[in-house]
Amino acid sequence: MTGTAAPRALRLGTRASALATSQSGWVADRLRAAGHEVELVHVRTEGDVSRASLTEIGGTGVFASALRDALRRNEIDLAVHSLKDLPTAPEPGLVVAAVPEREDPRDVVVARDGLTLADLPAGAVVGTGSPRRAAQLAELRPDLTVRDIRGNVDTRIGYVRAGQLDAVVLARAGLARLARLDDATDVLPLDAMLPAPGQGALAVECRDDDPALRTALADALEHPPTRAAVDAERAVLAALGAGCTAPVAALAEPADPPALSLTVFVALGPVPLRHVTTGSDPVGLGHSAAEHLLSRLDPVDTGSHTTGA
Ligand SMILES: NCc1[nH]cc(CCC(=O)O)c1CC(=O)O
């Protein structure tokens, strides 16, 4: 048993939803291709069990917490999260060992009769549980009615198929992972519908006291440009003190290397705000964008932001 490590199957904890299974299966395949043995372990989370609205359950972390508990209890070795559902606060004892290459981060519309967003008639009812999507829809099409909905991708598309809603807005990445891109009737451009911080990206988490596994996961899965982008986007959320259910959108894209261009949308005050900045330190970029927006949001609290333009 000395020299080469005995083959040990990595226990990959996953929620049972179709999206989670697909994401976990993709990561498992990548790890197997890199020579690892992987076993999928199903874990139930409150986010899957409850039908209450995300805002009611408390939002942040409902999908992640059961997987994190299983990691800490050493029932699993790694977990795959949708990065946009992962709270920004560091989790003691755990580490995001790898951020794989992100999918197309845009949102799509799934509408009846193949309609685009622009083609929906005035008064059409569009379902989304996301305050971020609702705020941007209100800007794009103030004549539409937005209805708060919950449920997995299948459930939400089902409301359209059943005629209960005219359309729903979903992440393109989710449809791609479910091989259901054909259901999208419109892909929303980034300047119309900015995605959630981390949208389209995954986080592969493990215990921080397992250096061999951390290295193995990074070697097989890490995509540094995606890590830099999501670090910047999540730094915005963290600095705003906001979570995954906040009306905050952020997307970092490559600019002149090694710089990133960070676009942020916030609907936290009476008027939605947008801000674009460029820089090469991802976290610093996110923090400065958040500071700038906070100074515009709360002109009374001028403490350290008196020069905001
Ligand atoms: N909030 C639910 C959620 N979390 C992750 C995805 C899939 C897309 C992604 O990973 O960003 C979705 C579905 C959606 O927003 O349509």
Q: What's the helix count? A: 10
State the separation between the terminal residues, measured CA to CA: 65 Å
Question: What's the pLDDT, averaged over the residues?
Answer: 90
Helix proportion range: 25-40%
How much β-strand is present in the residues? 15-25%
CATH class of the largest domain: Alpha Beta
Briefly note the structural class of the backbone: alpha/beta
- What best-fitting shape do the alpha-carbon axes yield? globular
CATH second-level architecture of the largest domain: 3-Layer(aba) Sandwich
Ligand names = the ligand NCc1[nH]cc(CCC(=O)O)c1CC(=O)O
**Cα radius of gyration in angstroms:** 20 Å
The major beta sheet can be summarized as: 5 strands, mixed
Per CATH, the superfamily of the largest domain is Periplasmic binding protein-like II
The name of the CATH topology of the largest domain is D-Maltodextrin-Binding Protein, domain 2
Order of helices and strands: EHEHHHEEEEHEHEHEEHHEEEH
**How many E strands?**
13
Give the count of structural domains: 3
Strand order of the largest sheet: 2-1-3-10-4
Indicate the low-confidence ranges by residue numbers.
53-59, 301-309
GO molecular function: hydroxymethylbilane synthase activity
Keywords: Porphyrin biosynthesis, Transferase
InterPro entries: HemC (IPR000860), Porphobilin_deaminase_cofac_BS (IPR022419), Porphobilin_deaminase_N (IPR022417), Porphobilinogen_deaminase_C (IPR022418), Porphobilinogen_deaminase_C_sf (IPR036803)
Organism: Ornithinimicrobium cerasi
